[in-house]
Amino acid sequence: MSPQETPAGGPAVAAVVVLAAGQGTRMRSSTPKVLHALGGRSMLGHVLAATAPLQAGVTVVVVGSGRDQVEAHLAEIAPGALPVVQEEQRGSGHAAAVALAAVPEVEGPVLLVNGDAPLLREETVGALVAEHTRAGHAFTVLTAAVDDPTGLGRIVRDASGAVTAIVEERDATPEQRAIREVNAGVYLGDAAALRSGLARIGSGNDQGELYVTDVLGLLVADGAPVGGVRAEDPDDVLGCNDRRELAARRRTLNDRVLDRLMREGVTVVDPQTTWVDVTVTVGNDAVLEPGTHLQGTTTVASGAVVGPDTTLLDCTVEAGAEVVRSHCLGAVIGPESTVGPFSYLRPGTRLARGSKVGAFVETKNVEVGEGSKVPHLSYVGDATIGRGSNVGAATVFVNYDGVAKHRTTIGDQVRIGSDTMLVAPVTVGDGAYTAAGSVITKDVPPGAMGVARAAQRNVGGWVRRRRPGSPAAEAAAAAERRADAPGDPGVHDDDEGQQSR
Ligand code: UD1
Ligand code: CA
Fold first, then answer.
1. CATH assignment of the domain containing 196
2. Which residue from 360, 501, 494 is spatially nearest to 417, judged by alpha carbons?
3. Residues designated catalytic
């Protein structure tokens, strides 16, 4: 039997209730507290992820402050969860009572959890469930021994070590304040015991609120079996009430992710400046250089190198690829391909094996074929590029006519000359070239050279006549004198210009 199953085989937890209606005043934010994000999820998202493995019959989220925003977010990340409105924020105990009233059919163990506990892990929740079930408690509180208990509820135990009460700091005696064991804000209670306790709590405390924590003392007085379980990692229980705590929790979460990655064989050159969301996967022998941010659904395959100073959101980096000093959103970077430095890859970019997007290149909605290159200073939007093609420096895929976007198709083994404007819709066939500086508005057939620029005209002697006495005129005169001297190769009007590469 796994800890998450009852002897009968049903789910060990009938309901999960997330308390998320509080104002979060100390955040000083127009965003509800539980929607603040860290490590790739909202606080609420982390709590739901930690409790999802319980597979509870129902998940209730108590909403109140900023409820429209919270409900919209919930519909996105956990459409199966049931939002229940707490009209007036009268305290955590009132929130719990409102939740249980909304699911009168629920009986058996109910997990109550604060919505501002983003470091809570499923192992910790599992340990609470296992101990509650093993001991046959009516109510079990998750606790932790912390160095600094400031602001948290203290766990009061009697001489035998049994938990007798949870006392909020502002209501605590000096002796109670000295207690270092604190309430995590995560509780497992039998539905009937919770309902009976919540019906009796009062607001006779410093804040005049209804505290869920008072249920514990009432059940102890009833003689019901009650207990506490200490979290193995005290970080798990840390709440998040202001921006400083948010930054600290984000750092802890990141440290956990990086620790795991390094244990799995990923090189993290500088853990202090590397930020990886909990939703990201990285293969072994990948290297994350300093200043790397991996976000969302990004995956980085074995042996790939990312960074320094690179952000990847919802990207796929395949084996052996390199992404250097770049910003990439929703891109697929194929095996052995290279990106950067200073590339901006936007959604729909798909780079095939061994391809290259180089310095100061922006791409969007483009397929770059195997071994093809866009090495410098280009914009490539709404295009398909075949295999083995090269797009010269400063090429622009002119995809927008001011009203609609159009596609460009480039074949295999194409050479687009530097500074070509490809005015879409347009196609350049396999093996074709375009001349540097061309504005290509018509299709170029396979194997043709598309030239679309004015022919060059040299106006002889212009500098001598129009800029007499200037350094340019003197240099030109000197060149002419050398050209007249026997044995000098001279300078001719019709020399072919050098091609830049
Ligand atoms: C609470 C605990 C404290 C514990 C700490 C852990 C109480 C009385 N105290 O303190 O013992 O150490 O968490 O972080 O619960 N909420 C509602 N409706 C309300 C009021 C609160 O839904 O009317 C929700 C909040 O959104 C929050 C949770 O309940 O998720 C706890 O409320 P909060 O004000 O953050 O309590 P703390 O003072 O942090
Ligand atoms: Ca809190």
1. 3.90.550.10
2. 501
3. 376
- What is the average pLDDT across 19-41? 95
| Closest ligand 1 atom to 20 CA | 26
Label each residue of 130-197 as H, E or C: HHHHHHCCCEEEEEEECCCCCCCCEEEECCCCCEEEEECHHHCCHHHHCCCEEEEEEEEEEHHHHHHH
Q: pTM of the entire structure?
A: 0.91
Domain annotation covers residue 174: yes
pLDDT for position 268: 98
Q: Which of 33, 70, 114 is the pocket-test mutation for ligand 1 (most atoms within 8 Å of CB)?
A: 114
Q: Residue 141's domain spans which residues? A: 15-237
Count how many domains the chain has. 2
pLDDT at site 153: 97
Residues 225 and 275 in one domain: no
Same domain, 321 and 414: yes
93 lines ligand 1 (CB under 6 A): no
**Considering the domain boundaries, does residue 420 fall inside one?**
yes
Report if residue 471 sits inside a domain. Answer: no
Percent of the chain at pLDDT > 70 equals 95
